[in-house]
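Operator note (shift B, R.M.): manual run for Elongation factor 4 requested after the automated queue skipped it. Running by hand, logging everything below so the morning shift can see what happened. Input copied straight from the record, untouched. If output looks odd, do not overwrite the archive copy; leave it for review.
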Amino acid sequence: TDLAHIRNFSIVAHIDHGKSTLADRLIQETQTVALRDMKAQMLDSMDIERERGITIKANTVRIDYKAKNGELYVLNLIDTPGHVDFAYEVSRSMRAVEGSLLVVDSTQGVEAQTLANVYQALDADHEIVPVLNKIDLPASECEAVAAQIEDVIGLDASEAIQVSAKTGVGIIETLEAIVHRLPAPKGDVDAPLKAMLVDSWYDSYLGVVVLVRVIDGSMKKNDRITFMQNGTVHQIDRIGVFRPQMVNVERLGPGEIGFITASIKQVRDTRVGDTITSEKKGTAKPLPGFKPSQPVVFCGLFPVDSSEFEDMRDAIEKLALNDASFSYEMETSAALGFGFRCGFLGLLHLEVIRDRIEREYNIELITTAPSVVYHLYMKDGEQRELHNPADMPDLTYVDHVEEPRIKATILVPDDYLGDVLKLCQDRRGIQLDLTYAGSRAMVVYDLPLNEVVFDFYDRLKSVTKGYASFDYQVIGYREDNLVKMSILVNDEPVDALSMMVHRDRAEARGRAMVEKLKDLIPRHMFKIPIQAAIGGKVIARETLSALRKDVTAKCYGGDASRKRKLLDKQKAGKKKMRQFGKVDIPQEAFISALKMD
Ligand code: GDP
Ligand code: MG
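Run finished. Output pasted below as returned.
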């Protein structure tokens, strides 16, 4: 196809504003998929994505559209992941296209992820077409929402397209806008090959599939190509496009988006954002701005049943094959036995991986408190990263500690603003900005990431009854008074419960923790002290009194079957217990203890 008849675009939106539905409708309208093969949300492939309505892997489709001017266009849609944890992937895939549809639910208005995503699109120099969706609903307020797009984002919304992705109203107008309002790609077919590695994933039949955007030159089957980041060479054995199922093509030229396979063993060998060129006479200039995505949140994952450790290793290795941004190493905990210390791009990423291990591999897990990466400046001048609070060296060796800070943007209806400000203030936040758009407030806070990984989303949701939206980006590291707090049960430290806290918040957190544990740990035949300590100093303490009766004492008389049942229950519960010296701690205790109010 000649460049003038190609349009590459993505759809940016806040979650649930209708991105997937609109994509489906565009595919259907252009009969890219026969009607009988159409299923809702064609582009969301993984189960967990469907359940949570989150698109995690970028997906792509090539659409042929005969415009009203009678000419045939090729439209390539890249569906970017919608969540903050995957911001880096979003920013890369944005650079693979020239324009975006900005979808805003006309019953809801602009939300935090609308802003985060549209700023990424603007960063990538996109032409942007605003689309007001869900106009079939009575609560739709197109004028107000268009005004909001102008006020808050500063985009001209006078020609916003009014759409119902549900009923199909406005779909042709959207296709026409893609053709006439978005720019065609540029490129030189005679220049050396330069292509962007937009995404990659593992397919059990094909091995690693690589999504590419050709900038200059062209690629075809059997070409030998180099991944410039690590210099590896591969031979293309399959090349094609997504419709959305895979269809082979002869070649991919400038402006085109498609896939290749090249006997690549693991996703790790393909770095998102890398430049692909030909082995011989390749380009000398890779695309600018490559950086590998770095895990920012770490936690320990341990099998509840320690005999499942090898199965878990297997599961983790398989998942890592398909997810280069997930890191892991083996960890041994006195408390929890053998497991893995894992690094994630954010909390959602953590949740997704944990859920997949539990569901797809049927392994029950204990998750330790998520922790951020701290920078330690040692007195001897050494600088290290701390991934696990349990590894925190004695404070006498540490000069100072730096923690990651984020810039958080929260949009919330007026009524809940006070509660949101209080929450942010409680989490050591510094207010940067507060503005209004209609009856919604937009607050911007500088917050420590470590305060956000503790149930911040949950708290925000509960104080705003679900009406707030939230987005963040890491802005850098800053020194603060951070210490390691240990938890001791029956005078033994429980490594899995140690955490880094701000010194001023240590007492409160320690108190909450020991009180919670007191309720969660079953009583034993002896007294159990539960303590929180910093270094050698105890900052909070509770005592669990000794048990007097045995559990079966309540069943008077000869009800043997009831007695049996109770004992069986106990046994089942035991499996989920962890022994600490002489004390059994139920798994529940770990999970609940880590949820702070
Ligand atoms: P995404 O998270 O942005 O991909 O949003 P989805 O496409 O999954 O849509 C979220 C919800 O809104 C789903 O229940 C859709 O059926 C619904 N939805 C999407 N577009 C429309 C529309 O135009 N009208 C109505 N009434 N509902 C819609
Ligand atoms: Mg979706």
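Quick read of the result: The pocket of guanosine-5'-diphosphate (ligand 1) is lined by residues 13, 15-21, 53, 133-134, 136-137, 164-166 (CB under 6 Å). The longest strand covers residues 398-413.
Leaving this for review. - R.M.
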